[in-house]
Amino acid sequence: MKFCCLASGSEGNCTLVESSEEGETLHVIVDCGLSFSLLKRKLLNHGMLPEDINGVFITHEHADHCKGVVPLVKFLEVPVFMTYGTYLANKEIRKNLKPIFLSPHKKILFKGLRINPFAVPHDARESIALTVESNNYKLGILTDVGAITKTIRDELEDADALILEFNYDDDLLSRSKYPEGLKKRISSKYGHLSNLSAMGFAKDFLQRERKVLVAAHLSSNNNSHNYVAALLDELCHEKKTESFIADQDNGTPWINLG
Question: Which of 108, 151, 153, 212 has the fewest CB atoms within 10 Å around its CB?
Fold first, then answer.
C-alpha cells in the first residue's frame, strides 16, 4: 500500500491511496475538493490519470472536501461513497450523483480494500473520518475534527500511518483578522484541531511504533509550516516514524507503507 496527499488545506483536500488487491492495482480517492482540471494536473504529477481512479470516498459536505466530486464521478462513472447526511447537505451532490451510503462504524469491503468510516465531531451534517486497510497495513485519515474522542482513539489504535490535522496555532488564530465568531467556530469542539491538540493526540499515538505521520490541513492564515515542522521534529525525534507535512500546493510525495 502507498498513499499521497494531492492537496491539503482550506482551498481543497484530496488523498490518493494505491493498493494491489487480488492481482489488480486499485486506486481510491478520499475527498475531492479540487477542480477537475487541477486534480488532473496533480494526478499527472504523481504518474496517474483520472481514468486510473476506481472509487471516491467523501468525508463531509464542505466545499474544500467535495467541490470537485461531481465532475470527477460523471467523467469516470465510478462509485462514490458518503454518508446520507453528507448527501442531504450538499445540493449539487443531491442533484447529480447517486452515491453508495456509508454508515459510521460499519466497515465495507471495496474491491478487497477494507474501509472503516467512523463519526467525528465537526460542524457538518454527518461528518466522518476513516481508515483504509490493505496488505496488512492500515492508514488513518483524520482531519476536520474539533476534538479527539474515545471513538477516534479506538479506531486509530492499530493504524500504521496517520494523516492528522494540524489546523491552527492558538496564538496566530487569536491575533488573526478573522471575525470573533469564526475564531470561536474554528476552535470549538466541532471545529478543527489546533497544533496543541494534535500534538497531544500524536504523542499518545506514537507510544507504539508507527511507520508514518503526516501533518495536514494547515491553515494558510492561522498556522506556520515552520511551527509544524518543529513540532514534528520534536514528536518523531529518535523514533522510527517518518514524518511529512501535506500543504495546499504540493501535498506530499508518494509514501510507501509496504
Answer: 153
